[in-house]
Specification:
By secondary structure, this protein is α+β, with helices and mostly antiparallel strands. Helix content is 34%, strand content 25%. The protein has a five-stranded antiparallel β-sheet with strand order 4-5-10-6-7. The chain is globular, with a radius of gyration of 19 Å.
């Protein structure tokens, strides 16, 4: 195995573009190292990006948006009080991944590029409208998070491309987000269903909304029908029921040992209502 520790994303991209065989990038390593040790994947080329300047930074920009380095950990996100106040759903989703020890290494980028439909941070990022900066042989481009995973374990990144930053939009006034999941155990388990909701209010009325579902289809879903169900409402009971029905209708899950198709479909509706209520309360400045 060839090991590289580049000093820039351009150098990392060039190394990956010229590599042969299996290539993996190493930031937190909570997926890559486990796969390597269990011999699920043995990379021919391992590119460690932790020494690139700024990869662990969490920066609030002048316009209120956020830029997160690709090696910024879940623990570092949780410890950033301003980020947690601005985007509690995104931070809470990341905080659900693994143990305390894992939190010290796990990253949003790794969780995204692992491309699991059940990834906890991804529905929260999709609901929040997060984008990522992708660096490749032809320069950089900005891509919506929902366009990165294409199938379980697969991404849209081309040979030589890697994510070089995570971009979270400005929170703005009268907005709130939330993420909820259902798991069989109380902690450290894989989501049976995950739901991210992000919305903005005009008075008591929902003016904007994004709803994302995880673990109910081959990739995380951005469900426009769920947003339509609550925009223009005050999240009354009728809107919540329409929302739940839209969430269940969007599901295309599998049967496995953690849940049946019918169970996942039902839970998706229930969790979406609960997450929407939390996001709505946060948008109003109330205790969720």
């Amino acid at each position: 195995m060839d090991y590289h520790s580049p000093a820039s994303f351009a150098e990392a991209s060039a190394l990956a573009a010229n590599a042969t065989g299996v290539t993996r990038f190493l930031a937190g390593g909570t997926d890559v190292l486990v796969q390597l040790r269990s011999e699920l994947v043995t990379p021919d080329t391992l590119i460690d990006i932790k020494k690139i300047n700024g990869v662990s930074d969490i920066t609030r920009n002048a316009d209120g948006s956020w830029t997160l380095g690709v090696a910024a950990t879940g623990a570092e996100m949780s410890e950033d009080a301003e980020l947690a106040s601005d985007w509690p759903g995104v931070v809470e989703a990341m905080d659900l991944i693994g143990s305390t020890q894992v939190q010290g290494r796990a990253t949003l980028t790794g969780n995204l590029c692992n491309a699991s439909p059940a990834a906890d941070s991804v529905p929260a990022m999709v609901a929040a409208g997060v984008t990522v900066t992708v660096t490749g042989p032809d320069g950089t481009r900005e891509v919506a998070v929902e366009d990165i995973p294409t199938a379980p374990g697969r991404t849209s990144l081309a040979k030589g491309e890697l994510i070089s930053a995570v971009n979270i939009p400005a929170r703005g006034a009268n907005g709130g987000d939330a993420y909820l999941r259902f798991i069989p155990r109380t902690e450290m388990d894989i989501a049976v269903v995950g739901v991210g909701v992000n919305l903005r209010l005009d008075g008591d009325t929902i003016a904007e909304a994004r709803v994302s579902l995880g673990a109910v289809a081959p990739t995380v879903l951005l469900v426009d029908e769920c947003a339509k169900a609550i925009i223009g409402t005050t999240l009354d009971d009728a809107a919540l029921e329409t929302l739940a029905a839209a969430a269940s209708a969007a599901c295309n899950p599998i049967n496995d040992k953690r849940g049946t198709v019918e169970f996942r479909t039902e839970v998706a509706g229930v969790l979406t209502k609960r997450a929407a209520k939390i996001a709505y309360a946060r948008a109003k400045g109330e205790q969720a």
